[in-house]
Specification:
By secondary structure, the chain is mainly beta. The chain is built from one helix and 34 strands. The N terminus is likely disordered. The strands form eight sheets. Strands 20, 21, 22, 23, 24, 25, 26 and 27 form an eight-stranded antiparallel β-sheet that branches. A six-stranded antiparallel β-sheet has the order 4-3-31-30-29-28, with no helix packed on it. A four-stranded antiparallel β-sheet has the order 7-34-33-32, with no helix packed on it.
Length: about 475
Amino acid sequence: MRVVALSMVSILIMAPLGGCFGGEEQVLEDFSVFDSVCSESGGEISNTTWYHYGNATDATKVSDIFNGTSVLVGDNAPICAIGTYYGIGMTTFEPTIGVTSSDNLYMTSWGNGAAGSTAIVRCSGMVGMSNISEYVCEDVYSALLPVANSNDPYVYVDPWTDRIMKFDMHALLGMTVEWSDNEGQSWTGPSVATGWSVQDHQTIASSPYPAAFHQTTWVFCVNGNYPYPVCSASNDGGLTWGPELPGTPSNCESGGLTGHITGSENGNFYRGNRGCDGGEGYSIYRSTNGGITWTEHPLPTENTGTAETWNFEEAQVATDSEDNVHAFWMGFDNMPYYSYSKDEGGTWSDPIMIAPPIGLNGTGFPVVTAGSAGKVALGYLGDSGGDTWNGYLTVITDAFSDMPLLTTVQVNAWGDPLDTSEGCGYNRCGGFGDFNDIVIDQHGRVWFGHAHNVGGEIGIYGTMAIGPTLRDLPLQPLPLGGPETL
C-alpha cells in the first residue's frame, strides 16, 4: 500500500490514519515521475490519493508513453496531492456554497438562523490559513425581519459581482429572494419570485448576459411538477423576475429534476437533465438569450446509460474560462462519467469513467466546476465497501490531452466515513439531501460542499491541502483538517 506523506512545508502534520483500504501490500513499478512526485513535501503518495487515467487505470502501474511520447508533461504532469475537509460547526441540508473575491466561503445551514430561519454561514480565514485555529464560521444572515426557514435553502455567489443571493422556498408554494453586496453584513429584500408552478428543487446562477439594470443576468429553474423544468430571469439583480417559461424546447418531456445551472463567460446558461425523449440518455440544455429559450444538446451516454437513483434525472455541467463546457453524470453502473465540449454543447468528447482504481461499489451526488481552459474538478460520494461512503475529488488539469491524468483524493481519512447507511449515495441521505455543491476560488483551489453525516450532519468543505490548481497559480498549502474541525 502507499503510505502517508509525513510533512509538508512544516505546516502539514498528519495524524496516523485509522486503517487503509484493500488487502495485501503491492509493490509499485519504478516510474520515477511518481516515485518523486511528493519528494518536495517530504513524503510519499498518500494512501487516500490516486493518479490514474480513465476507466480506473492506475497511472503508477502503466507506461506514460503514448504515440512514442510521454503524456505526463506540461499541465498534464502529476502534482503531489492530499485530501482533507473542514467543518462549519453547524448542520446542513442540501448544502449550496459560494466564495467571494474577499476569500470568504458561504454555506447554507437549514433552520439554524435567527427565529429558525436559514442560516448563511460565512467561513473567514479558511482560504490561505496556516493553522486550522485561524478560520471562523458564523451565521451572517441578520435581516431585521428574517424570512421563515424553507424546505430547500439555497445560496449562490455571483462570480462577476460578488453579490450573495439567498433563495428560500416555502411549502413548495413560493420563493423569496434576498441579497447582500457586503459579505453578508446587511441584506436587501425579500423580493418575491413566485410563478404559476409548484416551487421545488431550485437551482440559480448568473452570467454576463446583458441586463438592463444590473451587471449580470440571473436565472433560476425549478422542478415545477411539469414534464420539464420551468425557469425565470431577472435583469435587475434579483429585484424583479420575469415569467416562468419552459426550460426546454417546446414539447420536451425531460422530467423536471434539473442539475445545477451554470453561467458562462460568454453569457450562456447551461443545465443538465434527461433528454427530451425521456429515455436512457442525458442532455445539456443551453440558453443564449438569458434563460428565455433553451436548446437540447444530448450527451454521449449510448454506452454509459443513466443511473436509476434518486437524482436520476440530473446531469451536472460547468464552463471554464474559455467557454468550454464540461459535463458529469452517473451511468447505469452507478459509476461517474465525464465528457467535454469545445463548441458550446454541439459535439462531445468520448466519455471517460473517472473513479479511482480502488474498486468503488458505486457513486452518487455528482458536482463539477472548472477554472482555466481544460482544468476541471469533479466531486462525488463513493462506497468503498460495506456501505462506507466517502467524499472524492477528481481534478483534471489537461482535459484535452490524448490521455488526461486524473488526480483523485479522498477528502476523509480511512476510518472516518461520511456515512455508513445502505445505499446512501443513491438516495436522499442525511445532510446530503438531494444535492451537494462545488466552487473554485480565485486562487485555483476547489471546495466541495457536502456533509459529515456520521459526525452529526455537519456541513464540511472537502478540498486538497496540497495539489493541482485549476487556475494558472500554484496552490498555497493548507493544514490538514478532519474530525477535530467538526
